[in-house]
Amino acid sequence: WCIPAGGPDKLHQRGTFLCGVEDYLSFLEYLLWVFTPLAVVFILPFLIVILLYLSILFLHVYKRKNQLREAYCNNLWDGARKTLATLWDGHGAIWHGYEIHGMEKIPDRGPALIVYYHGAIPIDYYYFQARVILQKGRTCHSVADHLLFKIPGFKLLLEVFSVIHGPQEECVRALRNGHLLGISPGGVREALFSDETYPLLWSKRKGFAQVAIDSQVPVIPMFTQNVREGFRSLGTLRLFRWLYERFRLPIAPVYGGFPVKFRTFLGDPIPYDPNTSAVELAERVKLAVQSLIDEHQQIPGSILCALLERFRTKRKAP
Known about the structure:
Residues 99-222 form the Phospholipid/glycerol acyltransferase domain. This protein has 318 residues and is of the alpha/beta class. The protein has helices spanning 8-63, 65-74, 76-96, 123-136, 155-160, 168-176, 187-193, 207-215, 227-230, 238-247, 278-296, 303-308, and strands at residues 99-101, 112-116, 140-143, 163-164, 180-183, 219-225, 231-233, 254-256, 263-266. The chain starts with 7 loop residues before the first helix and ends in a 10-residue tail after the last helix. The model has no long low-confidence stretch (mean pLDDT 85).
């Protein structure tokens, strides 16, 4: 035996330390032994549920196999658009029980400008686009913030789905060529800084109204019920608001993904009137979107109530 410096007391301290480490490792081993089976027991059912949902998604695609085959025969990108639209439509049906009320107001042919409220993540607009592709056989062109075009790998997706960042001339060109065009006047600001009370943050923007006047097309207001309960933003915190106003950095965290009920409502088209100015038309469209919010959205929005909507067979007015 070699006695360490410090004598028997030092040896006793080392032994005590080693015993403590051994006890700690034994405790960890006990936790793993107890909780690993429990974790497996709880995780495996979720894996089964995920597999079931993937099976349902596959059935959505398979149900439209003939449409997809025909689309691919006509044009490669038409087939790709319909395939992705089918996947997104299936996701909306499964995760949000997605519905559209007023689809008949979207013309089967000819141009129209669709103006909508912008959620923290505009996933409702993706579902809407998918439904238009599948039910109307049309691609709705869209206006997006220029930041979206700087995300690596997004270029092809934006091109295939006819997404533009403006300016007004491009929007007018798309409408004069007979396309549908979707735009949210609130844009990134509304996405980040609106909240569960659903204020429209359009400021004094009237460019979209001038586009409609120059193109001589009707404007269709649109709003999706519970879109803020699906995803919410922390942009109302002072730090993130300051960063955006000072540096134009849209970095407010978004949380959610809750499987709440989504219903998209389309208002009556506002026809072209040569005697209406851009300021007047912008205000009229804003009032129309606000009217959809007032009629169909509980204020303030509630995540729990929006979740319970999934289990109601009949829609109740808020």
